[in-house]
Amino acid sequence: MRYLAVLRNPLFWVLIVLFIFCVILHYAEKMPFLDVEVNSILGLGRHSVERILFLALVVFAGLVFGLRGGFICLALAIAAMLPRALIISPQVADALFETIGVSVIGGGVIWWLESRHLEIGRREQALLKLEAVRRELQSYIQTIRENEKRLSVLHSITTAINQLSSLDEIINTAADKIMEAVDVDGLLVFLLQEETTELVVKTYRGVSDNFARKVDKLKVGEGFNGWVAQTGEPAVIEDSSNDPRLSREIVRNEGVVSQFIVPLVSRDKVVGTLSVISRSARHFVREEQQLLQLIGTELGVAVEKAELDEQSKRAGKRFQELFEKAHDAIWVQDSEGIIQTANQATAEYTGYSLGELVGMNVSEFLRPEGMQLAREIRRKLLSGEEVKQPYEQKVIRKDGSEAIIMLTTSLIGDEGGPPVFQHISRDVTQEKLLQENLRLYARQITRAQEEERKRIARELHDDPIQAMVVLSRKIDDITSSENLDSKCEARLEGIRGEVDEIMDKIRHFTQDLRPPTIDYLGLLPALRELVSQWESQSGIQCKLQTIGTERHFAEGDELLIYRLVQEALRNVWRHSGAKKARVVVRFSEEKTRVEISDDGRGFEMEEGLKFVQGGKIGLAGMQERADLLGGTLNIYSSLGKGTKVILEVPGERWKL
């Protein structure tokens, strides 16, 4: 094919003709039909000029046909010149020199032309590569500019989401940016109403108002947008008129041809759709689809953020209403004790107005010991220690009167921010006063009961027992008579036995009513006597153990402790089925601890059980006595593991 191309080249035949002409001219004197008489031209021998012509043909061949064509022509020229130089020319040396010169110069020129041709080719290749690189770079630059434009749109939408509080403003900003960044004729943004499962048009661009009204309130699954909302997948519609999902004729009447619809998604939940439309057939490239899908995700986040903000506002409003209308006093303070906000209930029981409370330090209505307690509570909350709540505080009202409150404190400061403490309190002044009165009444009633028991015991000891003693002696006098028969004597002995038994019962009864030992010897001897008598009566082994240095209580307090132990042992005898029991009295520096335990059947303790409501009247009496002592009563029991009753009385009840 290459040789045919050479043969078809006119210059090839021109070269052939000129070469033949030069050969004929070079050997003209040997041809009788030619008459050439020119011997020199421009001072050169005629044959030298012919050799120069051969050199010109070689250069021409190299210029036109390249290295191979030039060397072929050079070889032919040498072949044409050598016979004259070696055989015919009278100056063989000169002719041979000129022939060699033509060969060397011709070869050099051919080589230089080829090198020049290759250099030009390389340059052309380099230029072509540079042009390809330039075009590729321009393509990259165009892509970068388009990406920058898309990123600018995303940045604008993200900024709008972060800075704008209104969902309408965010969606309208996004719609404007999409129209700037994407070559479309219009768009619509639908939001999903969960209550009705309908897609409602939120905003639109490039379409008529009538079109927007006609496509409003699409059901999920209806039409193109309904299909996207149902599947959660984007949809490319090449020709809306011929698509089977077309549900409303207004789309065809509006001239909508191509559409690309993406779901607005947040946390895998579809909250709406974004539809861009074109009134001519249009192919949405991959970059445009990716951009619109990202925008759909951003708008989905914006919709969720708006819903959360709305819920937060509603919750905040409800909380504010609860805060302001709460019956309990609530205030919030910083770590320095400065009140930041308070409700009306706080103002009512402190006597300060809300305006006075905000900015006030709590030290203005708390006593020094109350401030110390408040600082300790705050310290424990900040360090994560357990705080027993609610706790009692005393508040000095504006008018100088004192109120007693039960207070619950919570740490509500944000992480990384300064700590803030919320206090919820209830005024229990009247309750405390009522409890104190009830305690006073209970103490008076208990004292009256004990006095009455003491009186009854004394009267039983002074009158009935003495009468029984006299009666017993009279029976003895009668039985000692010699005239009494054996039958009457036996009957009188039986009567005397019954009288003695009645006397023993009356003595036990008077002991229960009021043990004289506690009046004369104190608590511990009375408990020893109680344990000894109880052991002999019940048949249950029982021991009394004392630990620590004995302390004495007021007469009424010792009697309360005695009655509590007495009731506990009575419960062991009646209900436990125990074989052993134990009473331990432990005196320490801060308190006195009395523990009554048994190895009986036990019972299930119900959480929050009230003794009276639970039918445990004896336990209720024990609890009342513990309250009168200002102490605590704890009962531990479980089936098959016995029962333990623990009374703890603070050391301040000791008699100094």
- Beta fraction of the residues? 15-25%
Q: What is the number of beta strands?
A: 18
Distance between the termini: 135 Å
Give the biggest sheet: 6 strands, antiparallel
Contiguous runs where pLDDT drops below 50 for at least 5 residues: 38-43, 611-615
- Counted by DSSP, the helix tally is 19
The CATH architecture of the largest domain can be given as 2-Layer Sandwich
Helix/strand-derived category reads alpha+beta
Radius of gyration, Cα only, in angstroms? 61 Å
**At the fourth CATH level, what is the homologous superfamily of the largest domain?**
GAF domain
Number of domains: 5
Provide a compact summary of the structure.
The chain is an alpha+beta fold. It has helices at 2-7, 10-26, 46-88, 92-163, 167-181, 209-214, 223-231, 250-253, 286-325, 344-350, 354-357, 368-383, 429-462, 464-479, 486-513, 516-520, 523-538, 555-576, 617-628; strands spanning 40-41, 44-45, 186-193, 198-205, 218-219, 235-237, 258-266, 269-278, 329-334, 339-342, 391-396, 402-411, 420-427, 541-547, 580-587, 591-598, 632-637, 643-650.
